[in-house]
TrEMBL record:
<dbReference type="GO" id="GO:0009409">
    <property type="term" value="P:response to cold"/>
</dbReference>
<dbReference type="InterPro" id="IPR037104">
    <property type="entry name" value="Annexin_sf"/>
</dbReference>
<dbReference type="InterPro" id="IPR018502">
    <property type="entry name" value="Annexin_repeat"/>
</dbReference>
<dbReference type="GO" id="GO:0009414">
    <property type="term" value="P:response to water deprivation"/>
</dbReference>
<keyword id="KW-0041">Annexin</keyword>
<dbReference type="GO" id="GO:0009651">
    <property type="term" value="P:response to salt stress"/>
</dbReference>
<dbReference type="InterPro" id="IPR001464">
    <property type="entry name" value="Annexin"/>
</dbReference>
<dbReference type="Pfam" id="PF00191">
    <property type="entry name" value="Annexin"/>
</dbReference>
<dbReference type="GO" id="GO:0001786">
    <property type="term" value="F:phosphatidylserine binding"/>
</dbReference>
<dbReference type="GO" id="GO:0009408">
    <property type="term" value="P:response to heat"/>
</dbReference>
<dbReference type="GO" id="GO:0005544">
    <property type="term" value="F:calcium-dependent phospholipid binding"/>
</dbReference>
<dbReference type="GO" id="GO:0005886">
    <property type="term" value="C:plasma membrane"/>
</dbReference>
<protein>
    <recommendedName>
        <fullName>Annexin</fullName>
    </recommendedName>
</protein>
<keyword id="KW-0677">Repeat</keyword>
<comment type="similarity">
    <text>Belongs to the annexin family.</text>
</comment>
<keyword id="KW-0106">Calcium</keyword>
<dbReference type="InterPro" id="IPR018252">
    <property type="entry name" value="Annexin_repeat_CS"/>
</dbReference>
Amino acid sequence: MSIIAVPSPVPSASDDAESLRKALQVRHGRMVTTRVASAGWRADKGALTRILCRRTAAQRAAIRRAYAFLYREPLLNCFRYKLSRHCLLSLDFWKAMILWTMDPAERDANLVHEALKKKQRDETYYMSVLIEMLVRLVSSYRYEGDECVVDMDVVRMEASQLAEAIKKKKQPRGEDEVVRIVTTRSKSQLRATFQRYREDHGSDIAEDIDSHCIGQFGRMLKTAVWCLTSPEKHFAEVIRHSILGLGTYEDMLTRVIVSRAEIDMRHIREEYKVRYKTTVTRDVVGDTSFGYKGFLLALVGRED
């Protein structure tokens, strides 16, 4: 459920491109008349936020096309140039702005690529069971149409199979039933199976995963279960983890808020409030600052 508040009437893509150009050329309260990359220039981050954070993915794509046509320069290149010349106070803002302005599929591909590059240094991450599960998650076909029928006989059988596999107190192998079920069944089928699991065994499957599945496999399995059936639980937890303690994991916080703003941020806010007795807004305000804070708050949306 998107929380993006698009103005009415919405400006044309060309008008928005022109406004972005002006916002990118501000220096000490004045416009720079030379090209965007002029030495000493800075940007009106508030204006950039007000424009782009109130546009849908389709509208942002149209703005990028208009900007490239009008100024013979990709908009993201302008942002990347600014990032390459960042000061510490604006680094997180520009990284977040680049991710937000990307097409959602382009953004996801970029995030996956960066995550895999970081994990290559950890050889244990590439144990065969983890590879098997990742490959199946990204390659399986799940029918999610309106006529997706839940097979209750399969629900009963697979709830039992999951309980047996998870409570063995040893890490299942890649070919195990738990991987097959989680990576191939439709979301509606999985929700019914996990509900039956709770009814039959008196505990939530995520709780049992925490108790009985150790290491990377357990963490990945729990994440997969939550993301497939109740993603707001996973993303509320990630936001909380990113801001706990001293300092903030800005890349983690940015990734969640940027990627979920047009999908289910409202549900994430509600889950966050119930679980942590505070709001996403309050914690973002307490742990971020300046243009980066304003950018995140614009995507989080208003909370009562």
